[in-house]
Description:
single chain; 139 residues; alpha+beta; 2 domains; six-stranded antiparallel sheet; 11 strands; elongated
Amino acid sequence: MKLNQWCPRDLDPSSRRKAIAMHQTAIAIGFTVVLSSSTTVSAQNDVVGAITTSGSGTLTTCRSWIVYNACTTHKVILPERISVGDRVELKFGSNPKNYTFYITRIRLDGEGCRALSSSSGGDEDGEKLDISHCRPEAK
């Protein structure tokens, strides 16, 4: 688009600069919206219903302390196959602790996967199971 089509030449220099800056801002916002929506679509495409695991993973649990979140990780043994809706019984620690992880979503992440629960949070910064090697199950 030519500059003259959207910014008349009869404007004073200050108004002309403001009009150009507003136009450039609108273009930048448009590009940002397009890029963020394409990222969201690709993330949604990586969600699967069931996976075959490598047999081990890392459990991350977090607690909110009002001012900050404190997260801990534990190595855990996983069943060979997990799917959305499963309740996975996990044991970890030198003084074994039992933990039930309810799977609400499974997301592919390269060669690995991330299983999320209802307390994972929108930014996936809460409870999660990271699995280094997994394969999606055939439907």
